[in-house]
């Protein structure tokens, strides 16, 4: 039987994502040290790019569940010396129970999945960051309830996070307002797929109007460091600051996947202010991914243990 992968948020239905979020909230509040559904299981984690949250949350989640996580870097494995990704997938997936990859090319993850005997999780590619959306959506549900019918404003780069927000709007049924400078719009194919849920605006202020949630991300993602100065110029009107937040609903939340650059994409007063939930978001990476690991690796019987 083919394993179930999590490459994109579109791999989950709305019902599955809502169930996963509720499960994550349960796991967050009921920490049962005897509940070890992944005892003896191993998660391989392949990181082509840096990470704090993704690495710590997956490694900790596996430890909580009685399993183990392996950190694998291309710098000191054969992955960095040209071994074909299809061969690596065949080899690694004969030894471990699940693989998480953070890569530049999205196709590296899809190709790994095609050749893997075990579930594969996308821990960020240049195209998507679905694990972050699990945590963001959990955070919204915790603070405000279901996000269906709400308005979310994405201000800034049409990047991997923006793409996963378009997917979240499709799966959970909210409207995504996007304000991005010309030349930095999200992928046209993804926009077309999510067309019923996406609206574009000419300024951060207009996009934020009436929003229940305002979200941004770095102006230069990992791998784009050489474009930093160019991007600072292109994005200078796209900072989420107090004026932008004032255009949103009075009870709007602010999110950022982190790491953040205060004074660039977000002002310090917003990210450190009362509407910001960025550290709940970061913590929820742990709980949401534990729920994801359960979904991909555990039978219903094991999961029901904690629900009883
Ligand atoms: N938000 C996020 O994915 O953080 P890391 O790059 O630290 O994993
Ligand atoms: N867009 C950012 C997200 C980091 C978690 C990047 O890809 O670097």
Tell me about this structure.
The chain is of the alpha/beta class. The chain has 2 domains: 9-129 and 283-300, Rossmann fold, CATH 3.40.50.1370; 132-282, Aspartate/ornithine carbamoyltransferase (Rossmann fold, 3-Layer(aba) Sandwich). 42% of the residues lie in helices and 13% in strands. The chain has 13 helices and 9 strands. The chain has helices at 14-29, 53-64, 85-92, 106-114, 130-144, 160-172, 188-193, 204-208, 228-234, 242-247, 268-271, 278-297, 300-307, and strands at residues 42-47, 68-72, 98-102, 120-122, 151-155, 175-179, 198-200, 213-216, 253-256. It has a 5-stranded parallel sheet. Strands 2-1-3-4 form a 4-stranded parallel sheet, with helices on both faces. Strand 3 (98-102), helix 4 (106-114) and strand 4 (120-122) form a beta-alpha-beta unit. Helix 2 (53-64) crosses helix 12 (278-297) and helix 3 packs across helix 4. It is globular and about 50 Å long. Bound molecules: phosphoric acid mono(formamide)ester and norvaline (NVA). Residues 124, 129, 159-161, 217-218, 221-222, 257 line the site of norvaline.
* CATH topology annotation of the largest domain: Rossmann fold
Please name the fourth-level CATH homologous superfamily of the largest domain.
Answer: Aspartate/ornithine carbamoyltransferase
CATH domain class name of the largest domain: Alpha Beta
| Termini gap | 30 Å
State the helicity in percent bands.
Answer: 40-55%
Per DSSP, the total helix count is 13
Please state the second-level CATH architecture of the largest domain.
3-Layer(aba) Sandwich
| Estimated radius of gyration | 19 Å
Q: What's the shape?
A: globular
- Provide the β-strand percentage band: 5-15%
Structural class: alpha/beta
Could you list the spans in which at least 5 consecutive residues all have pLDDT below 50? none
Major sheet: size, sense and barrel closure? 5 strands, parallel
Present as ligands are: phosphoric acid mono(formamide)ester, norvaline
- Listing every helix as H and every strand as E from the N terminus to the C terminus, the arrangement reads HEHEHEHEHEHEHEHEHHEHHH
Return the domain count: 2
- Across the major sheet, the strand order is 7-6-5-8-9
Average residue pLDDT:
96
């Amino acid at each position: 039987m083919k394993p179930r992968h999590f490459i994109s948020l579109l791999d989950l239905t709305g019902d599955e994502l809502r169930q996963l979020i509720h499960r994550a909230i349960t796991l967050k509040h009921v920490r049962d040290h005897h509940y070890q559904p992944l005892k003896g299981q191993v998660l391989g984690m392949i990181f082509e790019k840096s990470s704090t949250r993704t690495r710590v949350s997956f490694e900790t989640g596996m430890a909580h569940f009685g399993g183990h996580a392996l950190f694998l870097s291309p710098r000191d494995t054969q992955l960095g010396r040209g071994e074909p990704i299809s061969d690596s997938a065949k080899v690694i997936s004969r030894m471990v129970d699940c693989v998480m990859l953070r890569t530049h090319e999205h196709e590296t993850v899809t190709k790994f999945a095609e050749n893997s005997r075990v579930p594969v999780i996308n821990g960020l590619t240049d195209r998507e960051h679905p694990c972050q959306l699990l945590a963001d959506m959990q955070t919204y549900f915790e603070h405000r309830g279901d996000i269906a019918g709400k308005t979310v404003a994405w201000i800034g780069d049409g990047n991997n996070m923006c793409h996963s927000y378009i997917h979240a709007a499709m799966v959970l049924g909210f409207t995504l307002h996007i304000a991005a400078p010309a030349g930095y719009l999200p992928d046209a194919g993804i926009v077309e797929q999510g067309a019923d849920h996406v609206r574009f605006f000419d300024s951060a202020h207009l996009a934020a109007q009436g929003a229940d949630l305002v979200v941004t991300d770095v102006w230069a993602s990992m791998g784009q460091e050489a474009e930093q100065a160019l991007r600072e110029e292109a994005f200078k009107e796209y900072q989420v600051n107090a004026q932008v937040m004032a255009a949103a609903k009075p009870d709007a939340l602010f999110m950022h996947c982190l790491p953040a650059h205060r004074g660039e994409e977000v002002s310090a007063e917003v990210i450190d202010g009362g509407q910001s939930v960025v550290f709940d978001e970061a913590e929820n990476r742990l709980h949401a991914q534990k729920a994801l690991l359960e979904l991909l690796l555990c039978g219903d019987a094991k999961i029901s243990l904690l629900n009883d």
